[in-house]
Amino acid sequence: MSVEERATPEEHLGRRAATGVLWLAAQKWAIRVSGFVTLIVLTHQISPRGFGVVAAAMTVVPMVYLLSDLGFSTYLLQTEDADQRSLSTAFWTSVAAGVVLSAGLFGIAPLLAQAFRTPDLTPVLRALVLSVVPTVLAGVPLALLRRAMAFRAVAVQALVAAVLAQVAAVVIALMGGGVWALVSQIIVSQWVIAVLAWRSARWVPSLSLSPRQFRVMAVFGVRVSAVDLVASSRVWAETWIIAASLGTTALGLFNISQRLVQVAQELTAASLTPVSTVVFAKVRESATRLGSTYLKALGLVYAVVSPLMVLIIVTGPALIPVLFGHRWLASVLPAQALAAAGIITLGAMLDHGLYYGLGRPGAWLCYSVVVDGATVAMTALAVRWGLGAVAVGFVVVAVLATVVRWVLVGRLLGLGALSVARPFGTLLVPTVATIVVGTLLLRSMSATGSTGASMVVTAVGTVVVNLVLLRLIGGRIIRDGLSILPVPARYTRRIGQLLRLVPSPTP
Asked: What sign has the CA pseudo-torsion 277, 278, 283, 288?
């Protein structure tokens, strides 16, 4: 009997999920490596104000995406029965909603520009209507691919779309296109993804619709869309507060800070969300398997993502001016604070997938409304002291929101809040120690006068210290990660023996 045949259902599902995570992570890495190079080029060609205009636009356009989808694609991910009538009903409903909302966005663009006190926003919003159509068309095909756990296909499509969009943006920027380089990047990416998704899914909608199934999907979808709409509304409100109080240039500076943190998240934990939704849906009938799978995944999220956030916190003062230029120096403090908040809230992405996988989007909606409302209130309070204060306010809200989430998830899984908090507590010590050591190392290296060299040495030293402390304090988390890697067991055993995580076999 082969190793695969002897595997338990949990191990088999874990390896399939891990394969999906690896494919999505590989896609994120490839996109973000090329995207980071593109961002460096664009920040030297486009002013902070230009980035601010597009950042303002992209707080509005995603709302159109969400309302057009109506949460139907998420419903298709977690339902046990997705027949042709259900798929066609979801598709045609989304198309109709997308057409109506696109026309509405085109019409109210001047009013939104006036609200943001940014006249340049009107043509940008109207141009971005072109990105709504492909997003709506791709909803059902992408849901089918993810439902089939065809994460390799999804990853390749996203990579191709990103590369083509980045090439278009760089060419237009070098030709002096300014803000239109950023606009073209968004439009090209969405169209390429849509075309490739349809080609891979090999699905054709029919005209056979189901009013009954529409009502079922609508009930679920309203709650799902409400969760995401609350988050989008929070982003819109924060952006409006910053733009109206500090100006579009300040918004552009803040946007670069956010992008740095998003790069770290999308390189790692963001790839877990679509996978975790499917996996949690498949194991939800067994409370034991569900709790075990959740805690294992939570520990891995903290272990994998926190080192990248730590690098931003430690090397930010040198990293941002070296890569983007000195006109972006005001982005340093916000980037550091956002990275700290990112570490604290890492589990939220996994919990999002947990609640959706268990068919409980309504509970997540209630949590989101409270947290996002608190975030907006904190932004309005802190903006008078500048961008740094706004970002620090995010950290305060992140701490409170995380404690509340531990309690809620603990009750949901029957684990207790302390059990849910344990992975974070385990990795808190190595994380804080690494930040302290890295900061001291950067200060000592700065005396050499070479910013680039000090940044590289500090980054390497920070990573080494973090890995050593993680091995000493969080060895169990590494062992859990090895147990679900989609590679032959003999290799994971050898790695475990090398790291002394598992006993060596007796001769």
From this structure: negative
